[in-house]
Protein backbone atom coordinates (compact mmCIF):
# COMPACT_ATOMS: atom_id res chain seq x y z
CA UNK A 1 0.00 0.00 0.00
CA UNK A 2 1.44 3.34 -1.03
CA UNK A 3 1.10 6.04 1.55
CA UNK A 4 3.35 8.62 -0.07
CA UNK A 5 2.37 12.24 -0.70
CA UNK A 6 0.95 13.02 -4.10
CA UNK A 7 -0.86 15.93 -5.61
CA UNK A 8 -4.02 13.90 -6.01
CA UNK A 9 -5.58 10.66 -4.87
CA UNK A 10 -3.98 8.07 -7.09
CA UNK A 11 -6.26 5.06 -6.91
CA UNK A 12 -9.89 4.36 -6.10
CA UNK A 13 -10.22 2.63 -2.73
CA UNK A 14 -12.55 -0.14 -1.75
CA UNK A 15 -15.79 1.01 -0.30
CA UNK A 16 -16.26 0.49 3.41
CA UNK A 17 -17.63 3.16 5.76
CA UNK A 18 -14.33 3.89 7.45
CA UNK A 19 -12.55 4.25 4.10
CA UNK A 20 -15.23 6.69 2.97
CA UNK A 21 -14.51 8.77 6.05
CA UNK A 22 -10.85 8.74 5.12
CA UNK A 23 -11.63 9.80 1.56
CA UNK A 24 -13.66 12.71 2.91
CA UNK A 25 -10.77 13.84 5.07
CA UNK A 26 -8.27 13.47 2.29
CA UNK A 27 -10.43 15.23 -0.28
CA UNK A 28 -11.12 18.14 2.02
CA UNK A 29 -7.41 18.48 2.65
CA UNK A 30 -7.94 18.68 6.41
CA UNK A 31 -4.86 18.17 8.59
CA UNK A 32 -3.65 14.68 9.37
CA UNK A 33 -0.90 13.49 11.68
CA UNK A 34 1.82 11.41 10.04
CA UNK A 35 3.80 9.28 12.47
CA UNK A 36 6.94 7.31 11.74
CA UNK A 37 6.79 4.32 14.06
CA UNK A 38 9.35 2.39 16.09
CA UNK A 39 11.45 5.42 17.00
CA UNK A 40 12.58 5.10 20.65
CA UNK A 41 11.61 7.95 22.97
CA UNK A 42 13.58 9.33 25.85
CA UNK A 43 13.43 12.34 28.15
CA UNK A 44 10.93 14.32 30.17
CA UNK A 45 7.36 15.30 29.36
CA UNK A 46 5.77 18.31 31.09
CA UNK A 47 2.17 17.59 32.07
CA UNK A 48 -0.39 20.34 31.54
CA UNK A 49 -3.37 21.36 33.66
CA UNK A 50 -6.33 18.98 33.64
CA UNK A 51 -8.84 19.63 30.86
CA UNK A 52 -11.75 18.28 32.88
CA UNK A 53 -10.82 20.45 35.85
CA UNK A 54 -10.25 23.67 33.95
CA UNK A 55 -13.59 23.46 32.16
CA UNK A 56 -15.44 22.93 35.44
CA UNK A 57 -13.42 25.70 37.12
CA UNK A 58 -14.39 28.07 34.32
CA UNK A 59 -18.05 27.19 34.92
CA UNK A 60 -17.47 27.70 38.66
CA UNK A 61 -16.04 31.18 38.11
CA UNK A 62 -19.57 32.35 37.22
CA UNK A 63 -20.64 31.90 40.85
CA UNK A 64 -19.02 35.15 41.92
CA UNK A 65 -19.34 38.67 40.52
CA UNK A 66 -15.66 39.11 41.37
CA UNK A 67 -14.52 36.36 38.96
CA UNK A 68 -11.25 34.52 39.41
CA UNK A 69 -7.77 33.86 38.14
CA UNK A 70 -7.04 30.28 37.08
CA UNK A 71 -3.46 29.10 36.65
CA UNK A 72 -2.06 26.06 34.84
CA UNK A 73 -4.53 26.40 31.97
CA UNK A 74 -3.60 24.24 28.97
CA UNK A 75 -3.84 25.28 25.32
CA UNK A 76 -6.83 23.23 24.19
CA UNK A 77 -9.68 23.69 21.73
CA UNK A 78 -12.10 22.97 24.60
CA UNK A 79 -10.69 25.85 26.69
CA UNK A 80 -11.16 28.16 23.71
CA UNK A 81 -14.75 26.90 23.21
CA UNK A 82 -15.54 27.37 26.92
CA UNK A 83 -14.05 30.89 26.80
CA UNK A 84 -16.26 31.66 23.79
CA UNK A 85 -19.30 30.44 25.72
CA UNK A 86 -18.51 32.56 28.78
CA UNK A 87 -17.96 35.58 26.53
CA UNK A 88 -21.43 35.20 25.03
CA UNK A 89 -22.72 35.53 28.63
CA UNK A 90 -20.98 38.89 29.07
CA UNK A 91 -17.87 37.56 30.82
CA UNK A 92 -14.48 39.05 29.92
CA UNK A 93 -11.60 36.62 29.57
CA UNK A 94 -7.95 37.41 29.11
CA UNK A 95 -5.19 34.90 28.78
CA UNK A 96 -1.51 35.40 29.47
CA UNK A 97 0.42 32.18 28.99
CA UNK A 98 -1.10 29.59 31.28
CA UNK A 99 -3.00 32.14 33.37
CA UNK A 100 -6.64 32.87 32.64
CA UNK A 101 -8.30 35.93 34.14
CA UNK A 102 -12.07 35.70 34.21
CA UNK A 103 -14.02 38.88 34.88
CA UNK A 104 -17.61 37.94 35.70
CA UNK A 105 -18.72 41.37 36.94
CA UNK A 106 -20.80 41.95 33.86
CA UNK A 107 -22.58 38.60 33.57
CA UNK A 108 -25.54 39.86 31.59
CA UNK A 109 -26.97 36.83 29.83
CA UNK A 110 -28.27 33.57 31.21
CA UNK A 111 -28.21 31.48 28.03
CA UNK A 112 -25.50 30.13 25.76
CA UNK A 113 -25.82 29.34 22.03
CA UNK A 114 -26.30 25.81 20.72
CA UNK A 115 -23.38 26.12 18.26
CA UNK A 116 -20.93 26.45 21.15
CA UNK A 117 -22.51 24.24 23.82
CA UNK A 118 -22.89 21.38 21.32
CA UNK A 119 -19.10 21.23 20.96
CA UNK A 120 -18.47 19.97 24.48
CA UNK A 121 -19.97 18.32 27.51
CA UNK A 122 -18.60 20.56 30.27
CA UNK A 123 -20.33 23.69 28.95
CA UNK A 124 -23.61 22.25 30.23
CA UNK A 125 -22.29 22.17 33.81
CA UNK A 126 -22.49 26.01 33.79
CA UNK A 127 -26.26 25.55 34.13
CA UNK A 128 -25.66 25.03 37.87
CA UNK A 129 -23.58 28.17 38.42
CA UNK A 130 -25.75 30.39 36.17
CA UNK A 131 -28.92 29.28 37.91
CA UNK A 132 -27.39 29.85 41.35
CA UNK A 133 -26.11 33.31 40.48
CA UNK A 134 -28.96 34.65 38.31
CA UNK A 135 -31.99 32.62 39.44
CA UNK A 136 -32.64 31.34 35.92
CA UNK A 137 -30.67 29.82 33.06
CA UNK A 138 -31.15 28.28 29.63
CA UNK A 139 -28.69 25.77 28.28
CA UNK A 140 -28.85 23.67 25.11
CA UNK A 141 -28.33 19.95 25.65
CA UNK A 142 -24.57 19.37 25.53
CA UNK A 143 -22.15 17.79 23.06
CA UNK A 144 -18.79 16.18 23.86
CA UNK A 145 -17.39 12.88 22.68
CA UNK A 146 -19.96 10.67 20.92
CA UNK A 147 -19.34 7.66 23.16
CA UNK A 148 -22.85 6.93 24.42
CA UNK A 149 -26.23 8.50 25.03
CA UNK A 150 -24.91 10.73 27.84
CA UNK A 151 -28.25 11.98 29.23
CA UNK A 152 -28.52 14.85 31.74
CA UNK A 153 -31.41 13.45 33.80
CA UNK A 154 -29.37 13.43 37.03
CA UNK A 155 -28.46 17.10 36.60
CA UNK A 156 -32.11 17.94 35.97
CA UNK A 157 -33.52 15.89 38.86
CA UNK A 158 -30.93 17.33 41.24
CA UNK A 159 -31.76 20.91 40.25
CA UNK A 160 -35.46 20.14 40.74
CA UNK A 161 -34.65 18.85 44.23
CA UNK A 162 -32.93 22.18 44.88
CA UNK A 163 -36.19 23.96 44.12
CA UNK A 164 -35.81 24.77 40.43
CA UNK A 165 -38.42 24.17 37.82
CA UNK A 166 -36.84 22.62 34.76
CA UNK A 167 -38.29 22.08 31.30
CA UNK A 168 -36.62 20.76 28.19
CA UNK A 169 -38.05 22.30 25.01
CA UNK A 170 -36.62 22.08 21.52
CA UNK A 171 -33.32 20.76 22.86
CA UNK A 172 -32.90 23.55 25.40
CA UNK A 173 -33.02 23.11 29.16
CA UNK A 174 -34.88 25.98 30.84
CA UNK A 175 -34.37 26.23 34.59
CA UNK A 176 -35.50 28.79 37.12
CA UNK A 177 -35.53 28.96 40.89
CA UNK A 178 -39.10 28.70 42.18
CA UNK A 179 -38.63 30.80 45.32
CA UNK A 180 -39.64 34.47 45.40
CA UNK A 181 -36.11 35.64 46.08
CA UNK A 182 -34.71 33.63 43.15
CA UNK A 183 -32.61 31.44 45.43
CA UNK A 184 -32.30 27.68 45.32
CA UNK A 185 -33.08 25.73 48.49
CA UNK A 186 -30.68 23.21 50.05
CA UNK A 187 -31.80 19.59 49.71
CA UNK A 188 -30.77 15.97 50.11
CA UNK A 189 -29.91 14.55 46.69
CA UNK A 190 -29.10 10.95 45.86
CA UNK A 191 -27.47 10.32 42.48
CA UNK A 192 -28.43 7.02 40.83
CA UNK A 193 -24.86 6.80 39.57
CA UNK A 194 -21.82 8.86 40.63
CA UNK A 195 -21.93 11.21 37.64
CA UNK A 196 -19.00 13.63 37.50
CA UNK A 197 -20.94 16.32 35.66
CA UNK A 198 -24.08 16.04 37.80
CA UNK A 199 -22.01 16.21 41.00
CA UNK A 200 -20.27 19.34 39.67
CA UNK A 201 -23.46 21.02 38.42
CA UNK A 202 -25.28 20.40 41.70
CA UNK A 203 -22.34 21.28 43.93
CA UNK A 204 -22.01 24.64 42.17
CA UNK A 205 -25.75 25.26 42.32
CA UNK A 206 -25.84 24.47 46.05
CA UNK A 207 -23.03 26.89 47.02
CA UNK A 208 -25.42 29.85 46.85
CA UNK A 209 -28.60 28.02 47.93
CA UNK A 210 -30.41 28.70 51.20
CA UNK A 211 -29.60 25.96 53.72
CA UNK A 212 -27.60 22.77 53.50
CA UNK A 213 -27.35 20.31 50.60
CA UNK A 214 -26.13 16.76 50.83
CA UNK A 215 -25.15 14.94 47.61
CA UNK A 216 -25.09 11.19 48.17
CA UNK A 217 -23.38 8.74 45.80
CA UNK A 218 -21.37 11.71 44.55
CA UNK A 219 -18.52 11.31 42.06
CA UNK A 220 -15.12 11.20 43.76
CA UNK A 221 -12.93 12.19 40.79
CA UNK A 222 -9.99 14.54 41.48
CA UNK A 223 -11.61 17.10 39.16
CA UNK A 224 -14.66 17.25 41.48
CA UNK A 225 -12.29 17.94 44.38
CA UNK A 226 -10.52 20.63 42.35
CA UNK A 227 -13.83 22.38 41.65
CA UNK A 228 -14.79 22.13 45.33
CA UNK A 229 -11.40 23.61 46.24
CA UNK A 230 -11.94 26.56 43.90
CA UNK A 231 -15.42 27.15 45.35
CA UNK A 232 -13.98 26.95 48.89
CA UNK A 233 -11.24 29.44 47.89
CA UNK A 234 -14.07 31.72 46.71
CA UNK A 235 -15.79 31.43 50.11
CA UNK A 236 -18.11 28.43 49.65
CA UNK A 237 -18.69 26.01 52.52
CA UNK A 238 -18.16 22.49 51.18
CA UNK A 239 -17.15 19.32 53.03
CA UNK A 240 -16.58 15.79 51.81
CA UNK A 241 -15.51 16.39 48.20
CA UNK A 242 -13.50 13.34 47.16
CA UNK A 243 -15.78 11.03 49.17
CA UNK A 244 -19.18 9.73 48.12
CA UNK A 245 -21.08 12.23 50.28
CA UNK A 246 -20.64 15.97 49.81
CA UNK A 247 -22.16 18.58 52.15
CA UNK A 248 -22.63 22.15 50.97
CA UNK A 249 -23.84 24.90 53.26
CA UNK A 250 -25.13 27.73 51.11
CA UNK A 251 -23.60 31.19 51.53
CA UNK A 252 -24.84 34.62 50.47
CA UNK A 253 -22.13 35.28 47.90
CA UNK A 254 -18.68 34.25 46.75
CA UNK A 255 -15.57 36.35 46.16
CA UNK A 256 -12.46 36.46 43.94
CA UNK A 257 -9.91 33.63 44.12
CA UNK A 258 -6.53 32.92 42.57
CA UNK A 259 -6.43 29.19 41.92
CA UNK A 260 -4.09 26.65 40.32
CA UNK A 261 -5.65 23.65 38.58
CA UNK A 262 -4.41 20.09 39.13
CA UNK A 263 -2.26 18.34 36.51
CA UNK A 264 -4.02 16.26 33.88
CA UNK A 265 -3.99 12.62 35.05
CA UNK A 266 -5.35 11.41 31.70
CA UNK A 267 -2.63 13.19 29.75
CA UNK A 268 -0.02 11.75 32.13
CA UNK A 269 -1.43 8.24 31.74
CA UNK A 270 -1.38 8.65 27.96
CA UNK A 271 2.36 9.44 28.03
CA UNK A 272 2.95 6.57 30.48
CA UNK A 273 1.40 4.18 27.97
CA UNK A 274 3.38 5.82 25.14
CA UNK A 275 6.61 5.05 27.04
CA UNK A 276 5.58 1.43 27.61
CA UNK A 277 4.38 0.89 24.04
CA UNK A 278 7.53 2.26 22.46
CA UNK A 279 9.67 0.31 24.99
CA UNK A 280 11.23 3.61 26.01
CA UNK A 281 11.99 5.51 29.21
CA UNK A 282 10.02 8.69 29.85
CA UNK A 283 9.66 10.75 32.99
CA UNK A 284 6.80 13.15 33.56
CA UNK A 285 5.89 15.91 35.99
CA UNK A 286 4.05 17.52 37.57
CA UNK A 287 1.70 14.70 38.42
CA UNK A 288 -0.24 13.67 41.51
CA UNK A 289 0.67 9.97 41.95
CA UNK A 290 -2.49 9.31 43.98
CA UNK A 291 -4.59 10.34 40.94
CA UNK A 292 -2.81 7.70 38.86
CA UNK A 293 -3.06 4.70 41.20
CA UNK A 294 -5.22 2.63 38.84
CA UNK A 295 -3.04 3.35 35.80
CA UNK A 296 0.24 2.69 37.64
CA UNK A 297 -1.06 -0.54 39.14
CA UNK A 298 -2.28 -1.83 35.74
CA UNK A 299 1.05 -0.99 34.11
CA UNK A 300 2.92 -2.80 36.88
CA UNK A 301 0.63 -5.83 36.49
CA UNK A 302 1.62 -5.88 32.81
CA UNK A 303 5.30 -5.89 33.77
CA UNK A 304 6.09 -2.24 33.06
CA UNK A 305 8.48 -0.56 35.52
CA UNK A 306 7.07 2.62 37.08
CA UNK A 307 9.34 4.55 39.43
CA UNK A 308 8.34 7.52 41.56
CA UNK A 309 11.34 9.88 41.49
CA UNK A 310 9.87 12.75 43.49
CA UNK A 311 6.48 13.57 45.05
CA UNK A 312 5.27 14.99 41.73
CA UNK A 313 7.35 13.03 39.21
CA UNK A 314 7.40 9.48 37.85
CA UNK A 315 9.45 7.59 35.31
CA UNK A 316 8.10 4.79 33.18
CA UNK A 317 10.65 2.28 31.90
CA UNK A 318 9.44 0.14 29.04
CA UNK A 319 10.57 -3.48 28.55
CA UNK A 320 10.61 -6.18 25.89
CA UNK A 321 7.78 -8.37 27.20
CA UNK A 322 4.47 -7.45 28.75
CA UNK A 323 1.71 -9.68 30.17
CA UNK A 324 -1.91 -9.24 29.05
CA UNK A 325 -4.29 -8.20 31.83
CA UNK A 326 -8.03 -7.53 32.18
CA UNK A 327 -9.43 -4.03 32.52
CA UNK A 328 -12.85 -2.87 33.68
CA UNK A 329 -13.67 0.83 33.57
CA UNK A 330 -15.32 2.23 36.69
CA UNK A 331 -15.95 5.56 38.42
CA UNK A 332 -12.96 6.89 40.40
CA UNK A 333 -11.02 5.43 42.15
CA UNK A 334 -11.65 2.59 39.67
CA UNK A 335 -9.91 2.41 36.33
CA UNK A 336 -10.94 5.51 34.31
CA UNK A 337 -12.88 5.14 31.09
CA UNK A 338 -10.81 8.05 29.74
CA UNK A 339 -7.72 5.79 29.83
CA UNK A 340 -9.39 2.71 28.33
CA UNK A 341 -8.50 3.30 24.67
CA UNK A 342 -4.82 4.02 25.42
CA UNK A 343 -4.47 0.88 27.57
CA UNK A 344 -6.19 -1.16 24.89
CA UNK A 345 -3.54 0.03 22.43
CA UNK A 346 -0.86 -1.29 24.81
CA UNK A 347 -2.71 -4.60 25.29
CA UNK A 348 -2.48 -5.22 21.52
CA UNK A 349 1.27 -5.94 21.93
CA UNK A 350 1.15 -7.83 25.24
CA UNK A 351 1.68 -11.58 25.45
CA UNK A 352 -1.60 -13.49 25.88
CA UNK A 353 -5.17 -12.26 25.91
CA UNK A 354 -6.81 -9.58 28.03
CA UNK A 355 -10.45 -8.59 28.40
CA UNK A 356 -11.50 -4.94 28.35
CA UNK A 357 -14.96 -4.27 29.77
CA UNK A 358 -16.22 -0.73 29.21
CA UNK A 359 -18.93 -0.24 31.84
CA UNK A 360 -19.28 3.56 31.92
CA UNK A 361 -20.35 4.29 28.32
CA UNK A 362 -22.37 2.22 25.85
CA UNK A 363 -20.31 3.11 22.79
CA UNK A 364 -16.69 3.74 23.66
CA UNK A 365 -14.96 1.01 21.71
CA UNK A 366 -14.93 2.55 18.24
CA UNK A 367 -11.12 2.50 18.24
CA UNK A 368 -11.20 -1.32 18.05
CA UNK A 369 -11.76 -1.31 14.28
CA UNK A 370 -8.95 1.19 13.79
CA UNK A 371 -6.49 -0.74 15.97
CA UNK A 372 -7.38 -3.91 14.04
CA UNK A 373 -6.60 -1.99 10.84
CA UNK A 374 -3.09 -1.66 12.29
CA UNK A 375 -2.81 -5.42 12.69
CA UNK A 376 -4.20 -5.78 16.22
CA UNK A 377 -6.24 -8.86 17.10
CA UNK A 378 -9.31 -7.61 18.99
CA UNK A 379 -12.69 -9.29 19.07
CA UNK A 380 -15.66 -7.30 20.21
CA UNK A 381 -18.99 -8.31 21.69
CA UNK A 382 -21.20 -5.52 22.98
CA UNK A 383 -19.05 -3.58 25.44
CA UNK A 384 -16.45 -6.26 25.94
CA UNK A 385 -13.29 -6.53 23.86
CA UNK A 386 -10.95 -9.51 23.92
CA UNK A 387 -7.47 -8.35 22.95
CA UNK A 388 -4.96 -11.00 21.93
CA UNK A 389 -1.45 -9.67 21.69
CA UNK A 390 0.43 -9.65 18.38
CA UNK A 391 4.22 -9.29 18.09
CA UNK A 392 4.03 -6.04 16.13
CA UNK A 393 1.49 -3.46 14.91
CA UNK A 394 1.87 -2.12 11.40
CA UNK A 395 1.38 1.50 10.42
CA UNK A 396 -1.84 2.33 8.56
CA UNK A 397 -4.19 5.23 7.81
CA UNK A 398 -6.65 5.41 10.71
CA UNK A 399 -9.58 7.58 11.75
CA UNK A 400 -9.92 9.00 15.26
CA UNK A 401 -13.49 8.62 16.44
CA UNK A 402 -13.25 10.46 19.76
CA UNK A 403 -10.74 12.20 22.00
CA UNK A 404 -9.13 9.25 23.78
CA UNK A 405 -9.40 7.04 20.69
CA UNK A 406 -7.29 9.65 18.90
CA UNK A 407 -4.62 9.44 21.63
CA UNK A 408 -4.67 5.63 21.46
CA UNK A 409 -4.08 5.72 17.71
CA UNK A 410 -1.21 8.20 18.06
CA UNK A 411 0.61 6.01 20.59
CA UNK A 412 -0.14 2.88 18.57
CA UNK A 413 1.38 4.70 15.58
CA UNK A 414 4.52 5.52 17.59
CA UNK A 415 5.02 1.80 18.28
CA UNK A 416 3.97 0.43 14.89
CA UNK A 417 6.18 -0.65 12.07
CA UNK A 418 6.17 1.92 9.24
CA UNK A 419 4.03 5.02 8.93
CA UNK A 420 0.64 5.75 10.47
CA UNK A 421 -1.63 8.59 9.35
CA UNK A 422 -4.16 9.68 11.96
CA UNK A 423 -7.21 11.56 10.71
CA UNK A 424 -9.92 13.32 12.73
CA UNK A 425 -7.46 15.52 14.65
CA UNK A 426 -10.16 17.87 15.95
CA UNK A 427 -10.76 15.22 18.63
CA UNK A 428 -7.11 15.20 19.67
CA UNK A 429 -6.97 19.00 19.80
CA UNK A 430 -9.90 19.11 22.26
CA UNK A 431 -7.86 17.48 25.01
CA UNK A 432 -4.10 17.28 24.38
CA UNK A 433 -2.01 20.41 24.89
CA UNK A 434 0.70 20.68 22.18
CA UNK A 435 1.00 16.88 21.95
CA UNK A 436 3.13 16.87 18.83
CA UNK A 437 5.64 19.29 20.35
CA UNK A 438 5.79 17.26 23.57
CA UNK A 439 6.35 14.02 21.64
CA UNK A 440 8.89 15.54 19.27
CA UNK A 441 10.86 16.86 22.26
CA UNK A 442 11.36 13.26 23.44
CA UNK A 443 12.41 12.03 20.02
CA UNK A 444 9.20 11.05 18.24
CA UNK A 445 8.99 11.56 14.51
CA UNK A 446 5.59 12.95 13.63
CA UNK A 447 4.21 15.92 11.81
CA UNK A 448 0.89 17.47 10.96
CA UNK A 449 0.26 18.04 7.32
CA UNK A 450 -2.53 18.96 4.96
CA UNK A 451 -0.74 17.35 2.03
CA UNK A 452 -2.87 14.93 0.10
CA UNK A 453 -2.01 11.40 1.16
CA UNK A 454 -2.74 8.52 -1.18
CA UNK A 455 -3.96 5.35 0.47
C1 LIG B 1 -15.92 17.30 30.87
C2 LIG B 1 -15.77 16.12 31.72
O1 LIG B 1 -15.48 16.22 32.90
N1 LIG B 1 -15.93 14.92 31.14
C3 LIG B 1 -15.70 13.72 31.89
C4 LIG B 1 -16.94 13.44 32.71
O2 LIG B 1 -18.02 13.38 31.81
P1 LIG B 1 -19.51 13.38 32.35
O3 LIG B 1 -19.62 14.26 33.53
O4 LIG B 1 -20.37 13.64 31.20
O5 LIG B 1 -19.64 11.86 32.81
P2 LIG B 1 -20.62 11.25 33.89
O6 LIG B 1 -19.84 10.83 35.07
O7 LIG B 1 -21.75 12.19 34.09
O8 LIG B 1 -21.18 9.98 33.11
C5 LIG B 1 -21.01 8.67 33.59
C6 LIG B 1 -22.18 7.83 33.14
O9 LIG B 1 -23.37 8.35 33.74
C7 LIG B 1 -24.38 8.54 32.78
N2 LIG B 1 -25.20 9.71 33.16
C8 LIG B 1 -24.61 10.89 33.45
C9 LIG B 1 -25.36 11.99 33.79
C10 LIG B 1 -26.75 11.88 33.83
O10 LIG B 1 -27.49 12.83 34.11
N3 LIG B 1 -27.32 10.68 33.54
C11 LIG B 1 -26.57 9.59 33.21
O11 LIG B 1 -27.12 8.50 32.95
C12 LIG B 1 -23.61 8.79 31.48
O12 LIG B 1 -24.37 8.53 30.34
C13 LIG B 1 -22.44 7.85 31.63
O13 LIG B 1 -22.81 6.58 31.19
O14 LIG B 1 -16.77 12.20 33.43
C14 LIG B 1 -16.62 11.05 32.59
C15 LIG B 1 -16.54 9.82 33.46
O15 LIG B 1 -15.36 9.82 34.17
C16 LIG B 1 -15.39 11.23 31.67
O16 LIG B 1 -15.39 10.19 30.72
C17 LIG B 1 -15.43 12.57 30.94
O17 LIG B 1 -14.18 12.81 30.34
C1 LIG C 1 -14.97 12.08 27.18
C2 LIG C 1 -14.16 13.11 27.38
O1 LIG C 1 -14.50 14.40 27.32
P1 LIG C 1 -15.99 15.04 27.22
O2 LIG C 1 -16.72 14.63 28.45
O3 LIG C 1 -15.71 16.50 27.19
O4 LIG C 1 -16.62 14.53 25.97
C3 LIG C 1 -12.73 12.89 27.72
O5 LIG C 1 -12.08 13.85 28.20
O6 LIG C 1 -12.21 11.78 27.50
From TrEMBL:
Keywords: Cell cycle, Cell division, Cell shape, Cell wall biogenesis/degradation, Cytoplasm, Peptidoglycan synthesis, Pyruvate, Transferase
Compartment annotation: Cytoplasm
Pathway note: Cell wall biogenesis; peptidoglycan biosynthesis
Binding locations of UDP-N-acetyl-alpha-D-glucosamine: 121, 150-154, 338, 360
Pfam family, one: EPSP_synthase
Residue ranges constituting the Enolpyruvate transferase domain according to the UniProt record: 38-439
Enzyme Commission number, as recorded: 2.5.1.7
UniProt superkingdom: Bacteria
Binding site for phosphoenolpyruvate: 51-52
Active site: 145
A GO molecular-function descriptor: UDP-N-acetylglucosamine 1-carboxyvinyltransferase activity
Residues the record lists as 2-(S-cysteinyl)pyruvic acid O-phosphothioketal modifications: 145
Chemical reaction(s) catalysed: phosphoenolpyruvate + UDP-N-acetyl-alpha-D-glucosamine = UDP-N-acetyl-3-O-(1-carboxyvinyl)-alpha-D-glucosamine + phosphate
GO CC terms, sorted: cytoplasm
InterPro entries: Enolpyruvate_Tfrase_dom, Enolpyruvate_Tfrase_sf, MurA_subfamily, RNA3'P_cycl/enolpyr_Trfase_a/b, UDP_GlcNAc_COvinyl_MurA
GO terms, biological process: cell division; cell wall organization; peptidoglycan biosynthetic process; regulation of cell shape; UDP-N-acetylgalactosamine biosynthetic process
UniProt function note: Cell wall formation. Adds enolpyruvyl to UDP-N-acetylglucosamine.
Record-stated family: Belongs to the EPSP synthase family. MurA subfamily.
Protein name: UDP-N-acetylglucosamine 1-carboxyvinyltransferase
Species the sequence originates in: Pseudanabaena cinerea FACHB-1277
